[in-house]
Amino acid sequence: MDQISKRVALLKAHAGMDSLLFHSILDLQYDGIVIEALGQGNMPPDTVEGIKSLIEANIPTIIVSRCFNGIAQDIYGYNGGGKQLKELGAIFSNGLNGQKARIKLLIALSQTNDMKVIEEMFH
């Protein structure tokens, strides 16, 4: 393959973020998304609906930490917490920043659309 044909968004979480951007990514038919989440992989509560809609549409949703040398984990169980996101089907990745995770997802999507295989690639 000489070129990448998939589209993967990269979003950085921020205070006050809601689901609007996630719904837009779904409407624009992106193939995947990488989210640089807060702390250990947590998102503002108002983003959960949008993230859930992406996962339900079978769009790989990769969570990394936006913190330098941060580790994304499914620790906190509150609304928007990493535990909830993992239960919804988000894929957590460690050791990669957002840009590297985006490239990895682009390559993964050029090989497969199988969510289990993509998840294994990020572990």
Structural account:
- With 123 residues, this protein is of the alpha/beta class.
- 37% of the residues lie in helices and 15% in strands.
- It has helices at residues 20-27, 48-56, 82-88, 98-111, 115-121, and strands at residues 8-12, 32-37, 61-65, 91-92.
- The chain has a four-stranded parallel β-sheet, sandwiched between helices.
- It starts with 7 loop residues before the first strand and ends with a helix.
- The model has no long low-confidence stretch (mean pLDDT 92).
Q: Helices and strands: which structural class?
A: alpha/beta
Q: How many helical stretches?
A: 5
Query: Which sheet architecture does the biggest sheet show?
Result: 4 strands, parallel
- The strand count comes to 4
What percentage of amino acids are in beta strands?
5-15%
Give the mean pLDDT.
Answer: 92
Termini distance? 25 Å
- Tell me the overall shape: globular
Instruction: Kindly report the spatial arrangement of strands forming the biggest sheet.
Output: 1-2-3-4
Q: Helix amount, in percent?
A: 25-40%
Order of helices and strands: EHEHEHEHH
The Rg value, from CA coordinates, equals 13 Å
Q: Which consecutive residue ranges, at least 5 long each, have pLDDT under 50?
A: none
Strand and helix layout:
Layout: E1 8-12, H1 20-27, E2 32-37, H2 48-56, E3 61-65, H3 82-88, E4 91-92, H4 98-111, H5 115-121
Parallel strand pairs: 1-2, 2-3, 3-4
Helix pairs in contact: 1-2
